[in-house]
């Protein structure tokens, strides 16, 4: 079994110097959100700095922000990883996500444009292709793009920021859902979301998001404890 350590390859693009600290933060956050850093994997400031082609300073500052957001924590010495997900924390995240993401979906039902619906169809097709291909990383990228296209359509940057904080804490554990068949059932909920948004049905959009969140919770509560 592959050792989940610093040696695991981190696929990133070198960064320029403009707004370097923010760009490093966004890159590391993107790795967390898209499954590039998984539970049990350890990374270091130096390793990330080398991967990004930058000095240690902007990486250190980005990791401080992500640690404060409970997306990462210090595991040992200079090693940093995904925090352990206790059942209490999982339940709390589920409850808050249902309220916040459900509200965003309901708002999006009234505001989403045809271009937004087309984007959702593209990402849903991508997820449908990723499941039989066993491409977890591509599925997670498409899943994030799908959900955040809905949340941005709500028209509230504030609610999108709140949801990103929640996803930074829970999304690394989406890596653990594939073997359970959750990705297939999640795509059923994703299709229901698109259909509800097309009908501008607020209640159905909220219900589809709640079903998706609840489905992943029911799998994770058996794994993380």
Describe the structure.
With 225 residues, the chain is mainly alpha-helical. It has 2 domains: 62 residues, Arc Repressor Mutant, subunit A (Orthogonal Bundle); 137 residues, Four Helix Bundle (Hemerythrin (Met), subunit A). The protein is 68% helix and 4% strand. It has a 3-stranded antiparallel β-sheet with strand order 1-3-2. Helix 5 packs antiparallel against helix 6. The two termini are 22 Å apart.
Biggest sheet details:
3 strands, antiparallel
Structural class: mainly alpha
Which shape, going by the Cα principal axes? globular
Strand line-up across the major sheet: 1-3-2
Q: Please give the CATH class of the largest domain.
A: Mainly Alpha
Low-confidence stretches: 1-7
The strand count comes to 3
Q: Which architecture of the largest domain would the CATH scheme give at its second level?
A: Up-down Bundle
Q: What is the ordering of alpha helices and beta strands?
A: HEHHEEHHHHHH
| CATH fourth-tier homologous superfamily of the largest domain | GntR ligand-binding domain-like
In terms of quaternary structure, what is this? single chain
What is the helix content?
55-70%
Distance between the termini: 22 Å
Overall pLDDT score: 90
Radius of gyration: 18 Å
How large a portion of the residues is in β-strands, by DSSP E? under 5%
